[in-house]
Amino acid sequence: MVTRRSVLAGAAAVPVMSFGANDAAGGDDLKLGVASYSLRNLPRARAIGVIQTLGTPYVNIKESHLRYTSTLEEIAAARKDFADAKITVLGGGNISLRENTVDGMRKWFDYARASGFPLIVCAPTPDNVGVVETLVKEYNIKAAIHNHGPEDKFFPTPQSVLKAIKGMDPRVGLCIDIGHTARSGVDVVKSIREAGPRLLDMHVKDLRDFSTSKSQCAVGDGIMPMVAIFKELKRMKFHGGVMLEYEINADNPEPGMVKSFAYMRGVLGGLRG
User: Fold this and answer.
1) Model's pTM, two decimal places?
2) Is pLDDT of 2 > 80?
3) How many alpha carbons lie under 13 Å from residue 92 in its C-beta half-sphere?
4) Domains and CATH numbers, the chain
5) Cα separation of 268 and 125, whole Å?
6) Crossing angle (nearest 10°) for helices 102-115 and 129-139
7) Burial of 39 per CB tally in 10 Å (0-12, 13-18, 19+)
8) Paired strand residues for 243
């Protein structure tokens, strides 16, 4: 049985600076990574340093670390920065994707292709998901629609995304944000199971109280059922990114992120043991 004690013991056994088995590409564990929005107040060089400290080779890049207005030369330099740090870019975003025509939305897919994103975490509307699908097919870049909780009038829950994309190309799916999902009053583990192969990416956060986003805390300090979530992802053989999106303490997020990674690795260590 995985208990909190076994989780903490597993966490203590994993050095922060080393890549654990859970970070190994092609392994049977989960790809723990960082949504760089967590580091939005830090310049790219410092953000990369924090990611290296966390010991993960995976990142989803937010616009604060690779501007939409970047030239091709600037994009190439950013890609080199991550590559030199041996960090694998699993995707980019969140990008709003609110345009209603292929020509209007194309600029975001051009940006993603130039940036080397195999996936865009995005926030379109139910009315323009067909445009997203058209560009996904053209560019062969996956689109993971992000649910944003009860404040989101378009996609508050994973179920609302699944309804909108039913029957679409399998490269159109969702990025489940487990914090926003819990705040919407739906079961997180059940939502992951219902998503199945449509789950392309995940944002991880923890909350002390599912009724308010202001209760966000380091992963393991809240009430998010992380053991059950990771069990379900492993049962599904999920190969997408499991990306920490740490939205608090924006000027100094590293301590909380280190604590979150230690706990998540402890959960995985407990499940393996």
Assistant:
1) 0.90
2) no
3) 25
4) 4-272 (3.20.20.150)
5) 35
6) 40
7) buried
8) 33, 203
